[in-house]
Amino acid sequence: MALKNSQRDHEKSQLSQSDVKKVSNISSMITREIILPEIEGEINEGKNFAPLRQIFHALILATWFKKRLRSNILAEVYADRKKSQRNR
C-alpha cells in the first residue's frame, strides 16, 4: 500500500515538458547573465587567477619575441647552430 502511494506521489510530482523547458530556460538565463560574468570577472581581475594571467602574458611575449628573433640578423648567425655545449 505504501509503495503504491509513493508511486502515485512520484507521478504527480513529475514536471510536464513545458515546465521542464521553462526551468531549463530560466537556468540558462541565470547562467548566462549572472554566473558567467562573475567567473569572467574573477578570471580577468581576481587575485586567485593572477599567476595564470602572468603565465598567459609571458607565453604571448615569448611567442612574439621568438617570431621577431627569426627575422633578426643575430638569429641568422646564432639560432639553431648547436654551438653551445652542455655541461655534463
In words, what does this structure look like?
It is elongated, with a radius of gyration of 29 Å. It is built from four helices and no strands. Helices cover 77% and strands 0% of the residues. It has helices at 2-13, 17-45, 50-70, 73-78. Among the domains are: 15-45; 50-79. The model has no long low-confidence stretch (mean pLDDT 82). It is an all-alpha fold.
- Helix-strand makeup class: mainly alpha
Main beta-sheet strand count, sense and barrel state: none
Uncertain stretches: none
Tell me what portion of residues adopts beta-strand conformation. under 5%
- Strands, count: 0
Helix content: over 70%
Query: What is the 3D form?
Result: elongated
Chain oligomer state: single chain
- What integer is the average pLDDT? 82
Rg (C-alpha, Å): 29 Å
Order of H and E elements: HHHH
Task: Note the gap between the termini.
Answer: 82 Å
Helical segment count: 4
List the helices and strands and how they pair.
Elements: H1 2-13, H2 17-45, H3 50-70, H4 73-78
Features:
88 residues; mainly alpha; 0% strand; elongated
Short characterization:
The chain is built from four helices and no strands. The protein has 88 residues and is an all-alpha fold. Among the domains are: 15-45; 50-79.
